[in-house]
Amino acid sequence: MLKKILLGLAAALLILQFFQIDKTNPEYDATQDFMNMYPPSEEVAQILKVACYDCHSYETKYPWYTYTQPFGWWIDDHIDHGRSELNFSEFGTYSPRRADHKLEEGIEYTETEEMPLPSYTWGHSEARLTWEQRELLINWFAELRPIVYPDSLKNADS
Ligand code: HEC
């Protein structure tokens, strides 16, 4: 009986492997990319690349375990959701107000350690940011806020 159940499970798991996620990155206009529009220091660029861009851009790198289901689906969902909330590859298409708001959220999420997602740093040790790295990123976002949306500081007063 148990043997049959285990065999059944193994067969089901095997079948799942045929349903692979789409690992092609969509085409996009690189001139609208956050880092191309506002070139950061090399250190900040590195932080964004290793800790944020896999879920918040069209430059996603898919590790080997995204080929194994159901992990692949779970990760794909994070990428879809992450991009829909904030896509650095399309940053230039955001209205000034929206861009400013995303930076504000970026500061908050980096400060509270909600980002990068803790589940992401299990498999990506390079994305476990030190406080020094978090501060660099936060300062960069803060510096850009009045540049992307000059009214942002005015609104803060009123
Ligand atoms: C493993 C994928 C993943 C990584 C890596 C990641 N994020 Fe996210 N991010 C998400 C998902 C999923 C959401 C939407 C769910 C939520 O808000 O928790 C999100 C939401 C956000 C939001 C909220 C946007 C809004 O308007 O509500 C911000 C800001 C953000 N992430 C910034 C970052 C920054 C900055 C980094 C790098 C330091 C980062 N994220 C790394 C997946 C990721």
Strand content: under 5%
Helix % is 55-70%
Number of strands: 0
- Averaging pLDDT over every residue, what do you get? 95
Q: How far apart, in Å, are the first and last alpha carbons?
A: 71 Å
State the order of secondary-structure elements, H for helix, E for strand.
HHHHHHHH
- Can you count the helices? 8
Radius of gyration: 19 Å
The count of domains is 1
Question: Which shape, going by the Cα principal axes?
Answer: elongated
Poorly predicted runs: none
Biggest beta sheet summary: none
Which small molecules are bound?
A: heme C
Structural class: mainly alpha
Ordered list of secondary-structure elements with their pairings:
Layout: H1 2-16, H2 34-37, H3 42-51, H4 71-85, H5 96-111, H6 118-123, H7 131-148, H8 152-157
Helix pairs in contact: 3-7, 5-7
The protein binds heme C (HEC).
